[in-house]
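Translate structure to sequence.
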């Protein structure tokens, strides 16, 4: 097959069996790859209502349809599973080199089932796929694990795997790619539950392109745009996502307020972070290089890629302004393999509950939880990774942690479908922010469509771009926020399915190649046609994006998601005020409009048969229509002593 690797690896860890099958052409054309292929596979293979930490859960890793090609920024690996953090669809999308090298070995997807009796890792070298003993790797931090595997197999391999947090089933453990690239939603704990430490791959085959001349010309044109863009050169390639601190209003002290650029305290400004930077780095074939390499003189250590999210969640939201300590926490999160957002927000919630007296020293084991206390937070991060003491409760992650504490705590869980992202007024950006959190198919999220609906970042790169996007078919969010969000969700779905980075800047040109020349998806259609030899059109791509999104919605319906779970959170102190009640009313009107336009039943939020039929997946309707699924209330939680704990 041109464009794709053409094969899928199925690994049954219980039986220690590997089967390699050809990628079906139909599946490739219907779901492209990456997120699309994973979401489809999970819908087919995961039975509703299972425990995400049981051997029945399925772990999928997939590269995108254009991974490993000459198109830049297409090195994202999509890691998907039933999430142990949320209990619904969980996928993370990580950079690095893994997906490109997996493609070069001739594969598009790895599907892992069962549970090994002892720690294992998977070794892939072109046509060889083996399950190997990982006793010597178990217990290692991510950087140590990657170094050990490179010592065994050579420096030209790529590695996906977990750190101690995944082994200890921390519910927000990440899948780590090549040391520093993290895929969230708790997939790391799924590896741990399967006794799987890592996948190491060497690929030497390259990717066959159907029409190389056209493809390389288009790919070069795309890359040149980034290389010439002044804003990229002067801002994103210099400070990466630290830019967000000046533009994206980080939450402060458990979302007590959101900091404007002039309110940033010393210690969490880009200029403070720059003092620790010693270099920059990037994923496979990226002209942007959004990632910093930083040095921690206090610990005599190095770290990579301190992002907006880690500074806000571990720093600002915990009122911590000790720059070097925040960077140390981010480096610890990478090395233990934990998601910085859930980690930081769970710690901030714990401090907030402690301040309110909802949790006490009895809960914390005598550890005082104080705002701004970096030293204790560093200790707690380690305790979470190994589920020690109070860390065992925090390791359950945000809403689950609040649920364990009790109903008073749960009132302060600002989550949608289990995932944290703070709380926002509905009138902010004409309702898009809150609506996007509500409609995201993996719980509250900023990378499922939100930022693409209002083009703020695009205006910075090219003042003409918003106009081109509108002419290309993106509805104006100021007039039609629901329409703008749906089109933006399509864009993100396609990006995740071709394996392109949505990037440091959350922008259209980064997500959708050549959008500045052929808006919206026409340039992408040309690239896919040239790469694969199949004819893709903009209309076909819209259909593919909707098919993937509706399958994801259907997956969550089977996990008990009802319309009520499209609610957005507010602090209990203000939720009954007339202003907020009016905002909530508007939110539900937008949800109704969204469900109608998505072809779902407006009362139940279940995708309609006729919609699924139009998208060529009527069989999905048989799985969800007129069926009763127990109402979602997060994943099943274990008794505290059942988790692997300590070192
Ligand atoms: S923009 Fe950043 S995250 Fe995206 S591919 Fe480039 S280096 Fe990786």
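Result:
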């Amino acid at each position: 097959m041109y464009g794709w690797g053409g094969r899928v690896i199925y690994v049954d860890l219980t039986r220690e069996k590997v089967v390699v099958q050809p990628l079906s052409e139909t599946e490739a054309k219907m779901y492209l790859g990456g997120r699309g292929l994973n979401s489809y596979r999970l819908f087919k293979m995961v039975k509703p209502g299972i425990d995400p930490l049981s051997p029945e859960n399925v772990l999928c890793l997939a590269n995108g349809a254009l991974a490993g090609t000459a198109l830049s920024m297409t090195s994202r690996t999509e890691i998907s599973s039933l999430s142990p953090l949320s209990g619904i669809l969980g996928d993370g999308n990580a950079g690095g080199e893994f997906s490109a090298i997996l493609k070069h070995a001739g594969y598009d997807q790895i599907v892992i089932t069962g549970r090994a009796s002892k720690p294992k890792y998977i070794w892939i070298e072109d046509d060889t796929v083996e399950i190997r003993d990982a006793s010597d790797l178990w217990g290692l931090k991510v950087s140590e694990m990657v170094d050990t595997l490179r010592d065994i197999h050579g420096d030209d391999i790529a590695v996906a795997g977990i750190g101690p947090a995944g082994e200890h089933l921390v519910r927000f453990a990440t899948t780590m790619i090549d040391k520093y690239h993290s895929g969230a939603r708790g997939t790391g704990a799924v590896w741990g539950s399967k006794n799987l430490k890592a996948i190491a791959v060497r690929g030497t085959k390259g990717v066959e392109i159907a029409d190389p001349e056209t493809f390389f010309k288009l790919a070069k044109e795309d890359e040149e745009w980034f290389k010439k863009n002044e804003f990229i050169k002067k801002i994103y390639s210099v400070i990466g996502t630290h830019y967000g601190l000046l533009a994206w209003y980080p939450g402060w002290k458990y979302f007590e307020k959101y900091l404007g650029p002039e309110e940033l305290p010393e210690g969490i400004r880009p200029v403070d972070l720059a003092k620790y930077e010693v270099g920059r780095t990037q994923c496979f074939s990226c002209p942007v290089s959004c990632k910093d390499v930083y040095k921690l003189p206090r610990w005599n250590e190095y770290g990579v890629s301190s992002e907006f999210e880690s500074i806000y969640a571990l720093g600002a939201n915990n009122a911590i302004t000790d720059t070097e300590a925040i960077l140390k926490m981010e480096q610890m999160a990478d090395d233990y393999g934990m998601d910085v957002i859930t980690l930081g927000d769970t710690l901030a919630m714990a401090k907030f509950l402690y301040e309110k007296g909802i949790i006490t020293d009895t809960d914390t084991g005598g550890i005082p939880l104080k705002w701004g206390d970096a030293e204790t937070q560093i200790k707690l991060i380690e305790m979470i990774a190994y589920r020690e003491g109070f860390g065992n409760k925090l390791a359950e992650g945000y809403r689950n942690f609040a649920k364990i504490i009790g109903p008073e705590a749960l009132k302060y869980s600002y989550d949608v479908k289990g995932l944290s992202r703070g709380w926002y007024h509905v009138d902010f950006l004409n309702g898009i922010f809150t609506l996007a959190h509500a409609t995201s198919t993996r719980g509250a999220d900023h990378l499922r469509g939100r930022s693409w609906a209002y083009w703020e970042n695009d205006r910075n790169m090219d003042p003409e771009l918003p106009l081109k996007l509108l002419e290309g078919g993106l509805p104006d969010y100021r007039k039609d926020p629901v329409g703008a969000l749906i089109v933006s969700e399509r864009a993100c779905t396609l990006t995740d399915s071709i394996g392109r980075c949505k990037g440091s800047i959350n922008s259209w040109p980064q997500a959708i190649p050549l959008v500045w020349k052929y808006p919206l998806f026409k340039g992408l259609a040309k690239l896919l046609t040239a790469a694969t030899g199949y004819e893709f059109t903009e209309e076909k791509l819209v259909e593919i994006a909707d098919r993937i999104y509706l399958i994801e919605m259907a997956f969550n319906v089977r996990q008990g998601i009802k319309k009520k779970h499209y609610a957005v959170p507010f602090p209990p102190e203000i939720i009954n005020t007339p202003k907020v009640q009016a905002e909530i009313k508007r939110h539900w009107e937008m949800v109704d409009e969204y469900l109608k336009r998505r072809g779902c039943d407006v009362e139940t939020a279940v995708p309609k048969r006729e919609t699924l039929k139009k998208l060529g997946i009527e069989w999905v309707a048989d799985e969800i229509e007129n069926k009763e699924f127990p109402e979602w209330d997060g994943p099943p939680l274990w008794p505290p002593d059942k988790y692997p704990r300590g070192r």
